[in-house]
Structures are given as C-alpha cells and as structure tokens.
Amino acid sequence: MLGIRPTTAEPARPVDDPLTALGAIDAVEGELERVLGGALDRAGEVDPVFARDVAGRVAALLRRGGKRLRTAFVWCGWRAAGGSGDATAVLRLGAALELVQACALIHDDVMDGSRLRRGAPAVHVDLARMHRAAGMSGPPEAFATAGAVLAGDLALAWADDLLTETALGSPHGARLHREWRAMRGEMVAGQYRDLHAQASGASGVDEALTIATLKSALYTIGRPLALGASLAGADERTLDALRTAGRCAGLAFQLRDDLLGAFGDPARTGKPVDDDLRTRKLTYLLAVALRLAEASGDEEAAAVLAPGAHPRPDETVARMRAALERTGARSVVESRIAELAAAGVRHFGSTGAGPAVRREFAVLVERASGIAPDTTR
C-alpha cells in the first residue's frame, strides 16, 4: 500500500554558477523531492484516501527515476542566453517538466494499454490490482482507467502550480508562461494526432514526423531550451536558434525511442519492447519501412506493416520486426538520427554560447539520441 512519505528536505538553497548540465540532472532530484513532499502534505490535508491512492502513485512514479534530461536542457538554454549565478529557478523549471512528463506517461500508458513503466506496473495496472485486492465492486479496468486519468491530471496541476510560482518570481515570467502554454498545447495535439493516426490507419512519413515533433521532440528538448533561455531574458534570435536546435535534437531522441520500441531490451528500457508494433503505432520507423517495401516490391513486408486489426499476435510482431530490418528502414532511421543530432548541435552553436556549454549540449544530445553528433557535417 502506498502512503505519504514525510518530507524532511531542507528549503531550497541557491545553486551557484559552477553547476553543470549533468550536475543539474542530479541537483533536480532534491528540488523534485521538496516539491513532492509539499504536494503530498497538501494532498493529505485534502483527503487521506486520495492522497494514498492517487497522489502517492504519482509521487512513486516520479521517484522511480527517469533520465531527467529536460532539466539539463533547461540549463543549456539558460546558459546559452547568458544565464549565470543562482540556478534555483532552473531546477524548479526542471522539476515542473518532470511533473509534466509524469502526466504524459500516465495518460500515454492508458491510451496505449502499456502495462510496464520504469520497471514497475503502469499506474492504471497498479490501480486495477488494488481494486481486485480490496474486493471493490465494478469492473477493475474501468476504475483503473478513470483513476489513472485523474493521476495524470494531478501531475499536470502540480506542474502548472510550480511553473506559476517560478514565473511570478521572475522578471521574465510572462515569457516563461508563453513557452509553457505553447508546450502544453503541442503535447495534447501530438497525443491526439497519434490516436487519430492509429484509428485511421495512417502510414505517411510526413504524418509520422508531425506526430513525433508535437508529441515528443518539442517538449523533450525544444521547449526546455526555450524555457531556460526565457528565464535569462533571451532575445528572439537566440530563442529561434534554440528552438531549431531543440526540434532537430528532439526528433533524434524520438527516432531513437522508436528504434528502442521495436528492438530494445525491456530490462534496460523499463517498458515493453513490442507495444508500438503490437498496436501498429505510426512511427517514422514504420512509415519509412512501408514506403521502402512498396518501392522495392516487397509485398510480404508491405502487407505485414499495413493497417489492420490490433493488437497483433506475437508471430505477426516478429514478422513486422523482420520487415523493419529487411527493408533497410532501421538503417535509414539510424542515419537520420545522426543527421538530426549533428544539426541540433550546429544550430545550438549559432546562439553564441560558450565552448563549455556547447560541449555539454553535445554530450546531452549524445545521451538522448544514442549517437555522438558529427559536428563536421
């Protein structure tokens, strides 16, 4: 049973300039724990059952880790725009982005029917287990779906609260809010386009890229960079360069995630490897494979990758994976990731950021994309 863990964290202290992008990944854990401690205390004051079953599960998901790369990209944007000194607001923005990520993961797992997240049962799966164990009435799945939707909503509310507090304490609060508002709209649009593509049996490469950009690339790297830069009062030229850099690097990240969704190791990724294929999710990888299959006359690959009934059985999933390899789509996507990662680093350099910040950005892009960017292209 989940309970409220008392918070013993000290109040936030100023973080001096020697903080690095990679250091921010570690430092945001303390900030996130302070935020969760306060949020859980407030939830307990509202209602103990809600605090245990809903707020407690949101906190548990966040405490199971994650790459925390968004915080590091906020730091990069802040430093690229001349930010220095106390980095507490940077960490608070990072914590807010982690809360948004929790909302997206919880809702995404419901929509995709995913059962595993960060090495543990997804929130809706855990709520269904609780329903059965307690002998509650009604269908466990309906209860769990509704409860997970509320859990995701709560994570987003906590994120909005934290962003608002940070914006009110900043001379650039209005700009922060504009970036945040745009990011939330893009996320919802991307999720819907993903659902729409799956329901309509879409297969186009352009549509796959639109979904990847809206659903992941912008809020993973593009908007974090712009949020950090806005916090430092960046001019429009710097913001435009960072948004372009983030779009390229963010797409590289998402295309890597597509490959991991088809070929990854669940023990390392913490999530099932076959979900995208089983549900025939429109990824750039699938769209490229289908286009290559049709162009080469590979009727077997085209047939197994085409729209159809889902969820697909293990045998069909295995044939889809083989088709992704045989058509050359996996190799094409690997090359595209390399191109996008390199472009992201080049655009970041055009901001005029110092050498140390550029190097850290390149390291982060390598972590996100799984490939060292070739900046000589």
From TrEMBL:
<dbReference type="InterPro" id="IPR033749">
    <property type="entry name" value="Polyprenyl_synt_CS"/>
</dbReference>
<dbReference type="Pfam" id="PF00348">
    <property type="entry name" value="polyprenyl_synt"/>
</dbReference>
<comment type="similarity">
    <text>Belongs to the FPP/GGPP synthase family.</text>
</comment>
<dbReference type="InterPro" id="IPR000092">
    <property type="entry name" value="Polyprenyl_synt"/>
</dbReference>
<keyword id="KW-0460">Magnesium</keyword>
<dbReference type="InterPro" id="IPR008949">
    <property type="entry name" value="Isoprenoid_synthase_dom_sf"/>
</dbReference>
<protein>
    <submittedName>
        <fullName>Polyprenyl synthetase family protein</fullName>
    </submittedName>
</protein>
<keyword id="KW-0479">Metal-binding</keyword>
<keyword id="KW-0808">Transferase</keyword>
